[in-house]
Amino acid sequence: MNPQPDRTPAPAPAAAAQLLTQLRASRQASSWVPAFEQDWTRALEDARFSYSLSSQHEVVRIWQARLAAAPAVDAFLASSMDDSDGVPLEDVLGARP
């Protein structure tokens, strides 16, 4: 019998480390890495007080979506199409944590 409770490690920290590696390799690294680190720090502080990992999972989800959308955004910007009818990212992904 094990005195420690069986716990499944939360995937958020591992996913965040992997995501940070991808962000550092991206073309937008100079602006995205500090922004991600700020969001992640805020999520860690929130988790300290709420005992919930939901804010960490939300940060990872939002940044994964941003990273996945980056090639499409770059292609759109390179096409010189009119973007005056755009939708704010917050409307699509929700407010930042």
Which key terms come to mind for this protein?
about 100 residues; globular; 4 helices; mainly alpha
Chart the SSEs and their pairings:
Elements: H1 11-25, H2 29-50, H3 54-78, H4 89-93
Helix pairs in contact: 1-2, 1-3, 2-3
If you had to describe this structure to a student in words, what would you say it looks like?
With 97 residues, the chain is an all-alpha fold. Helices cover 69% and strands 0% of the residues. It has a domain of 38 residues. The model has no long low-confidence stretch (mean pLDDT 83).
Helix content: 55-70%
Question: Would you report the number of β strands?
Answer: 0
- Reading the helices and strands in chain order gives HHHH
* Average pLDDT rating: 83
Structural class: mainly alpha
Contiguous low-pLDDT stretches (5 residues minimum) are none
Cα radius of gyration in angstroms: 17 Å
Outline:
About 70% of the residues lie in helices and about 0% in strands. By secondary structure, the chain is an all-alpha fold.
